[in-house]
Each structure stands twice: as C-alpha cells, then as structure tokens.
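Weekly modeling sync, notes
Attendees: S.R. (lead), two postdocs, one rotation student

Agenda item 3: backlog of single-chain predictions. S.R. asked that every request posted to the team notebook include the full sequence so nobody has to chase files. The rotation student volunteered to paste the first one in as an example of the format we agreed on. Action items at the bottom.

Example entry:
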Amino acid sequence: MFVNHKTSFLVRSGTLSSFKILQSGLTVNSLTSEQALKICQGALSAARSAQFKPMGVVVLDASGQLMAFVREDGASMFRFDIARGKAWGAVGMGASSRALAERAKDNPNFFVALAATAEGKFLAQPGAVLIKDASGQILGAAGASGGTGDEDEQICVAGIQAVGLLAG
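Predicted structure, as returned to the notebook:
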C-alpha cells in the first residue's frame, strides 16, 4: 500500500543549459491518500469509543503537506490549525509533539523562534505523533485537537495503528 519513489537528482554539468539526472538508488516510501484518510477515521473512532469531546485530526506527509483532515460535528474552528501545528512541528523536528514540548521547557527562546520562523504553523504541544513504516522511516505525522494533549495523542496512535503503521 506504499508508493515507492526513486530519488532523482538534477545536476548541472558544464554549461547552464546542460543538466544530468542521476538516479540515487534510494527508495522513499510515502503515505497514500487512502491511508491518510483511514488514519483520521481510526483516530475519530477511538475518540468516540472513549467518549472524548469533538475532535479534529490531521495527517501530513513527510514534507509537511496536508494529506487528510477531518473535523467532527461540534468541534471548534481552531481544531484544524492546532492539529496541523502539532503535526507540522513533529514532522519538521522528527519527534513527537510531546517530546518537543518537553524540549521547549529547557530552551523556550529557541522554540519561540521556531514558531515565528514557521509563521504560526509550529506548535510544540502534546497531541501529534510521527507515522513510521516498519523500518522506522518517517512517512509523516498525525495530529489531533479537541481533547487534552494525552487524549489527542492517544487517538493519533490508534489511527496510525489501525492502518498497520508505527506511531513514534
């Protein structure tokens, strides 16, 4: 269910109009839109089972691009921005948003600078986890908003596991 991409590099050789494409031999696994939507659905199913408040769940790919977002009826308008900010920070820093929140305690100025540099897309608060394949490669991140940080994180993990991937 993964999409494998061979990595190509465009290299200038000699004159400005002469370029070569080199195949690196590396393969990069990526999430499919079907997996992303199923992660959101699995997360919201877990939220309903636990009777959490209405939630929003976002899935980003490894480059921070939106793959899927679902906001439940009754969830506030902020759910998307908060869930995306948590997930975007996780992908960008290669760590769960909980780990980032812990790191921010020891170096708050750095994390304020990150948030400013990211123009508001970076949020170091619990509620987002990395999505990894069996080899540990980061495929993206899932973030949630609407409950406590623990609840948000719990449903993200459930959604990721529902599609057979690893949460990290």
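Discussion: group reviewed the output briefly. The beta strands are 3-12, 19-30, 56-61, 66-71, 128-132, 138-145, 166-167.
Action items: rotation student to repeat for the remaining queue; S.R. to check formatting next week.
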